[in-house]
Request: fold
Amino acid sequence: MRVAIAGAGAVGRSIAGELLENGHEVLLIDKAPTAISVERVPQAEWLLADACEITSLDEAALQRCNVVIAATGDDKVNLVVSLLAKTEYGVPRVVARVNNPKNEWLFNEAWGVDVAVSTPRLMSALVEEAVSVGDLVRLLRFSHGDANLVELTLPPESAIAGTQVGAVEWPQDTTLVTIIRGSRVLTPGAEETLEAGDELLFVAAQAREEQLEDLLSVRREDATS
Reply:
């Protein structure tokens, strides 16, 4: 897979290193000469250019990329790169970094963004996830379809603790993706039994999150009392 990353700062280089280790082809783009540190990620391609300029993106052959990651420290730049990647070059997958949470609402399909990653939101979500049992925590927002990646640690008092996955009537537009049980990552087959303490990861429509939390968090007799 070919991936172009706009922004060769610490974030961009770290992403590049991970992708290269997984066997992907990576191009780093930055307009600041001081950011071009080939020796830090020698396996990557490097391009000194402004990723907001069509001529630069032509030089980068963005149409050949499977994924573009807008990872600069400037939200305006990330939005422009995302829009150009999607509308001018038809890149199938565009991931954008959100630096200021106040701008998160802009990072959507209209701007060509498939996945928006807000570092402040993600950090706060991870803190919540570490201390919360029975509360739904939003980890990641997907622009297409208004869906989110959400997590909930199943509390002992949950109505579905001890129930098989296939026997649960999940809300519409909700999919159980993974069960994390201790150090194990489980595929949620229909016969897998849910246990108290399981970390459940879902892709769910935002409109269904409250319904999902109600289903997972309390016993039925408690909900009706």
